[in-house]
Here is the input.
Amino acid sequence: MDPHLLRTFVAVADLRSFSAAAERLGYTQSAVSQQIAALEADLGVVLLRRRPVAPTPAGRRLLEHAGPLLLRHRAARADVLRAAAGPPRTVVVAASALACPPVLARALRGPRLEVTVRTADRRRVAEQVASGAADLGLVDGIAAPSDPLRLPDVGPLTAVGVASEPLAVVLPSGHPLQGRSGLALGDLAGALWLQAPAAVAVERLRELAGEPPGSGGFRVACRYDGHDLHTVLNLVAAGHGLTLLPVSAAARPAAGGTTAVPLSAPRVVHRVEVLHGALPAAGRGAGDGAGDGAGDGAGNDGDAGDAGDTVAALVAQLRQPPSSTPPGTPPSGS
Here is the structure.
């Protein structure tokens, strides 16, 4: 299927209008109609009803495949262009909300290097790197100390662990449990929690605690869909629910006050991985002593003449911090 025709089909199905799709894509309405007709002729099925405009059952099935197909097309294009491009003067880093702790923020510095950091949710970070909208990605999540993160399959990307640290339960100041030396997540299933996917989603808490589906544990008191850590802490301080954060983030002050108690069980850590596309051969070798093994090894062929590639050098810097920190031990700095 021609990706241009598929993109036009998605626009028409999304907007339920040939004229609105034409305006979005910069085509005439006649051109949009011709492209839809060509796609239907290629597949031999009717994809859209015309009055009113709506996808047919076959069209709905195609829509399920269209997003991943178009993303893979953008990822392939970006991967080819990366292989042919010279060292960039600027680097765009897409990062999830808690994926840039102090040790990695320092590693992003470099002489004559301009870095732009964009915040996005974890899936969007992977998609931006795969499509070439970002040069590097930093994603965070909760995992067993030796396990990699579970990342979406969006293209030929390599994921390598670059930092990990213990987790803490964040409570409002004065909470009855604030004097504990440690808290087990399973003992907090009856508490009210802040639903903040930028920190940790309640669904993930239930999974970590081994709560069966539909058990009713980890009830949501408040939802926050943004990426601002200060807001997360302010909501906890105001009594809108507990949350789980890496210790470096949990220690930040909040208006009204919060306190952090180490998570004692289950034995998991907050982990950060760097995502990147193909790197030159010299970049591949840098930092291999990290002993992490989280990457899939994809995309490591490159032209040796690009040994000074800025992205490869930055990946090497990010891989220099310790990739694993024993639970209960503060992060080591740079």
Q: What stands out?
A: Residues 77 and 86 are 16 Å apart (CA to CA). The chain is about 35% helix and 20% strand. The first strand starts at residue 48 and ends at 49.
